[in-house]
Amino acid sequence: MTFCIIRLSFQELLEAASDVMSDWLDKHHGAEVTDNKIFDDLPKLYEDKFHQDMAALNVRCLARLFVCSMYILLSDFTLFLRELLVFGVICKTAVIRGNLCV
Fold first, then answer.
1. What was the pLDDT predicted at 50?
2. Which residues, 6 or more positions from 97, have their beta carbon under 8 angstroms from its beta carbon?
């Protein structure tokens, strides 16, 4: 039997366990969140990372960015995107993410 010893810093451990910790914290302490600022700050963090990735790929900055910030059914969101496509608000790309195709 072979054992592998993994040495992680505390920060690396927290990052590796962030999904599990997030679920646990939300379940046990989510009701204690009274400052809604987190609901603005967290999406902003990922939005900034998105823009950095696009810049690294030499993709032009978006003229408008639509953000979906509530929990909705994927089927409803797909229908919404299809309507935006029909009215010319968005354009179809060759990139498909996950199972979402418009």
1. 85
2. none
